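Quick log. Single chain, no ligands specified.
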Amino acid sequence: MSRFKREQDRILSEQARLLTDALRRKEIMERNLEEVVRSKVDVDLELKTSREREGRLAVEVEELKKEVKAVKMDSADKEVRIVQIMKRSEREREDLMGLGIALESKQQELELVGLAFSLAKKMEWMLILCCRSRES
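-> predicted structure:
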């Protein structure tokens, strides 16, 4: 019986050791599971935050695209306006040159009219003098 008792004690001791080991592994696994659950909660929260941020950034990108488009259109409009102003300026410069030439022509014409008038006056005086000298 003693041999049987020893064998039974050994088996019970082995089972107690196995049970203790199993309980330790269970505690470790439960801690690991809790850690995994906490990590999952953290990851889920981070994922939610990232998705929200992505949504805000997508809206901001769309707004920036619209703003860029508006700025490009404004820039193109200004470029067209600059070209129009430059063309108008060139036309006005040409008109000014034409007016300068016309003014110069009219001034020459006025000088000629003045000379003709002066010559006509001199001829009139000469006629008057000539007529007076014949009368005398």
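The chain has a mean pLDDT of 93.
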